[in-house]
Write a structure and sequence with these properties.
The chain is an alpha/beta fold. It contains 13 helices and 15 strands. Strand 6 and strand 7 form a beta hairpin. Helix 10 runs antiparallel to helix 13 and helix 11 crosses helix 12. The model has no long low-confidence stretch (mean pLDDT 96).
């Protein structure tokens, strides 16, 4: 029996290109190897310039969660107030992290499937003195995109002293965001829209973020202290913690792919693909959980058709049998649908295979859509957008 290859369509990790995997398979060298030092230095320089960062870019072995804590640890101190803007499960992750830090935490929440507005953020920040505010650019639990540019513009005019921490884990490299918008800490990880395997945390810190860290003196945290890593980022021949040598090479190759495509085109492609993909899924009867004006271009939450009587576990198991790896829903959407990523280096072949697998799973679970209904919408959209060539 031929084993069906799995399409990795969860909200991360995302599919990894062969050329990136080849870098991971290289013979590991000493982290003091001069060629590796040059590669690491070039990678950091590219990240800084491409994201228009006037401070420093950090590349550290770890996860997106580590990068999140790195931002909080270096930009705040015990006793300060922070506003957490949340539109889902991962926005809420800041709450415990900031509480453990000893911060005064207030939360601005949007109902699941929607986002707050810059005006609402302004109203909350006007109530007391805040040191920082957090924004989750894309929350993978809801598939919602936050109005980041609007928040940045509002902060510049209304609250210029408040530092902005942006969770770009499911956005950076797939959704437009630049450090010079006024973002003080933007962080992500290797396995999402960058299309690299898990293992690296990346963070862009503004000049004033570095100044804030310096003003704090000694902080309780050690591993992800900016002051520990700054010498290494500026001169990778220096040592603090062992760099993930092969993952640095993999990220360098991932960045080469991004540069070849161009960031602006990469952002536009994600938007085109997301619209076409959602239209195909909706043609099969699924509902996109995020309101149209708030939909993220990097992943979607698809709710089961009303009255279909689908059991979540059964349907997603059938998807797996048909070769498609999906993710279950969280929080308010748990059991009501499934999540599919469409970020990174996925192409038309992956999108076609994904919709075909969903169609087969629907038929197996009794929905019995007309064969090719979703694929027809997808292929039409691809042709019209030029993605088919």
């Amino acid at each position: 029996m031929i084993k069906t290859p799995k399409l990795l369509m969860i909200p991360g990790p995302t599919p990894v290109a062969r050329s990136i995997l080849d870098q991971m398979a290289r013979e590991t060298v000493a982290f003091g190897d001069m060629d590796f030092i040059a590669d690491f230095k070039g990678l950091v320089a590219d990240l800084k310039s491409m994201w228009r960062c006037g401070g420093e870019a950090f590349v550290v072995a770890g996860t997106g969660t580590l990068a999140m804590e790195m931002a909080v640890a270096n930009l705040t101190q015990r006793g300060e107030n922070i506003l957490v803007c949340s539109h889902g499960f991962f926005g809420d992750r800041f709450i415990e992290m900031c509480t453990r830090k000893g911060l005064g935490v207030d939360v601005l929440r949007a109902s699941w499937g929607t986002a707050y507005t810059p005006e609402q953020v302004n109203a909350e920040l006007s109530k007391k003195k805040y040191a920082a505010v957090t924004v989750t650019h894309v929350d993978t639990s809801t598939g919602v995109l936050a109005p980041l540019k609007g928040v940045c513009d509002m902060l510049k005019t209304r609250h210029p002293d408040v530092l902005l921490i942006v969770d770009g884990v499911a956005a950076a490299g797939g959704v437009e965001a630049w450090s010079d918008w006024g973002i003080d800490a933007l962080f992500t990880c290797s396995q999402k829209a960058f299309g690299v395997a898990p293992g690296l945390a990346m963070l862009w810190a503004s000049a004033r973020a570095l100044e804030k860290r310096k003003s704090l003196g000694t902080i309780p945290e050690s591993y992800f202290d900016f002051e520990r890593w700054l010498p290494v980022m500026r001169d990778p021949s220096k040592y603090w913690g062992t760099p993930a040598v092969n993952m640095i090479w993999a990220l360098k190759e991932g960045l080469r792919i991004i540069k070849e495509e161009g960031l602006e085109e990469r952002y536009a492609r994600h938007i085109r693909q997301a619209k076409i993909f959602a239209a195909a899924m909706e043609a099969l009867g699924f509902k996109t959980a995020a309101a149209p004006e708030h939909r993220a271009p990097t992943l979607s939450v698809f709710l089961y058709p009303d009255g279909a009587g689908l059991d979540d576990g059964t349907f997603r198991a059938k998807l797996a049998e048909e070769g498609l790896q999906s993710a279950g829903c969280l929080g308010d959407f748990a059991g009501k649908g499934f999540r599919l990523g469409h970020m990174g280096n996925i192409d038309k072949h992956v999108l076609v295979g994904t919709v075909a697998a969903v169609e087969r799973a629907c038929a197996a679970c009794g929905l019995d859509p007309a064969p090719g209904r979703g694929l027809a919408v997808l292929q039409s959209g691809l042709m019209q957008s030029g993605l088919i060539v």
